[in-house]
Design a protein that fits this description.
It contains 14 helices and 9 strands. It has helices at residues 3-19, 25-36, 49-64, 72-93, 102-116, 119-134, 155-168, 175-185, 207-213, 232-247, 253-268, 289-304, 312-330, 358-371; strands spanning 152-154, 197-202, 221-226, 332-333, 336-337, 340-341, 344-346, 349-350, 354-355. The strands form 4 sheets. Strands 1-2-3 form a 3-stranded antiparallel β-sheet. Strands 4-5 form a two-stranded antiparallel sheet. It is globular and about 65 Å long. The N and C termini lie close together (9 Å).
């Protein structure tokens, strides 16, 4: 493989993290229009998942290049970028996390501390741990995405917090429980694929949901599943969380079996060009490089940590990863990763706009780093 292509992606990811909070006047005006239309706009939180995905990509590259003799300069650039971003976060927030989405950056910070020993990364990760430890939960204990505003459980949040909980080494956190609850309430029973999220309803108060969805009562609750079936990034969040938990020995037998099923679904729905679509089953739909990066990262992370006992599944995954690597480079231009689906405004609100987005850039770099 041409190392220069990989280093170009690393360099552009560093550049994007360094500038993610620098918003031009024209972009601020666009955000004002989007806000007036009720659409989502960029956040003022430096640890939000947009930056968090770039950080995961850079930490993955740091780990990949840790023992590469001629990569010291780029390693130093990565560490400087991560530390500079933490400093920015401290200046803007006083060192306090404020969103469930900060858990993705928290995962990257834990890994950055383990690699570098830089106490600043540990202290930032501890702030995320404090927030997640106090985050609102539903009646079964799943972490709410917007506590106080709704009872919705988003797979985005479950994937991120399960990654962080598994990595941070706090025995009071049960990362596997978060995944088990989503497997219980957020999956399509016929296909085994995930919805974007769900909300618990008391069975005796909302029997209509059970009747309409042929859903049985589970511990007195029925699941009001939300969003389209298997949005690509939703699947990406779930398989990333499951992969990290399996790799770090946090999965029980049932959850590990679910993770293997996710891997098999990923292989089943991989496109001929090596990527994954914006909706997993839509093989003729538009490719999404953010979903592609997330899924490939999860598969590569698991294989690299030798989580599978049987010989055939890792071999199949390695073949799939080779195709995914070729796909990512085919959709990149001078280190800029293209064709990532735009942000999602709500359940089943997916504007079909594709381009270079931080979540695509970071996920693609994370994938390339575990594939190398």
């Amino acid at each position: 493989m041409d190392n220069s292509a990989y280093y170009e992606v690393v360099g552009k990811t560093v550049e994007q993290l360094n500038n993610i909070m620098n918003v031009s006047l024209s972009d601020r005006m666009k955000d004002a229009v989007k806000k007036a239309l009720g659409r989502s706009v960029r956040t003022k939180d430096p640890l939000f998942w947009h930056a968090g995905m770039l950080m995961v990509g850079l930490v993955s590259a740091l780990e990949c290049l840790e023992k590469v003799d001629d990569a010291k300069e780029i390693r130093d650039e990565i560490v400087a970028s991560l530390e500079g971003h933490v400093n920015l976060w401290i200046r803007k927030t006083g060192g306090k996390a404020g969103f469930v989405d900060d858990a993705l950056a928290g995962f990257a910070l834990v890994r950055a501390y383990e690699i570098t020993g830089n106490e600043k990364f540990r202290e930032a990760a501890d702030a995320v741990k404090t927030y997640i430890g106090n985050a609102g939960r539903d009646a079964e204990g799943a972490i709410l995405y917007n506590s106080g505003r709704s009872g919705n459980i988003f797979v985005d949040g479950i994937g991120q917090v399960s990654m962080f909980m598994a990595a941070c080494g706090d025995d009071s956190f049960d990362s596997n429980k978060q995944l088990r609850l989503f497997y219980k309430y957020g999956m399509d029973e016929e296909s085994g694929l995930c919805y974007h999220g769900y909300e618990l309803k008391k069975a005796d108060n909302d029997d209509r949901i059970a009747a309409d969805r042929n859903d049985s009562s589970k511990n007195g609750y029925v699941s009001d599943k939300k969003g389209i079936l298997c949005w690509g990034r939703a699947f990406g969040w779930l398989i990333m969380g499951a992969s990290v938990n399996a790799a770090l020995g946090k999965s029980d037998e049932e959850s590990f079996s679910q993770f293997k099923s996710l891997c098999e679904s990923a292989l089943k729905y991989q496109r001929a060009d090596g990527g994954w679509s914006w909706q997993l089953q839509a093989l003729d739909g538009h490719i999404d490089l953010s979903a592609t990066g997330m899924i490939a990262y999860a598969l590569g992370y698991a294989v690299n940590n030798d989580v599978f006992g049987e010989a055939d599944l890792p071999d199949k995954i390695r073949a799939a990863l080779k195709k995914a690597e070729e796909c990512i480079y085919a959709h990149s231009d001078k280190g800029i990763v293209l064709d990532a689906l735009s942000s999602c405004d709500d359940f089943a609100v997916h504007y079909q706009t594709y381009g270079n987005n931080p979540w695509g850039q970071g996920a693609a770099l994370a994938a390339l780093s575990v594939i190398r």
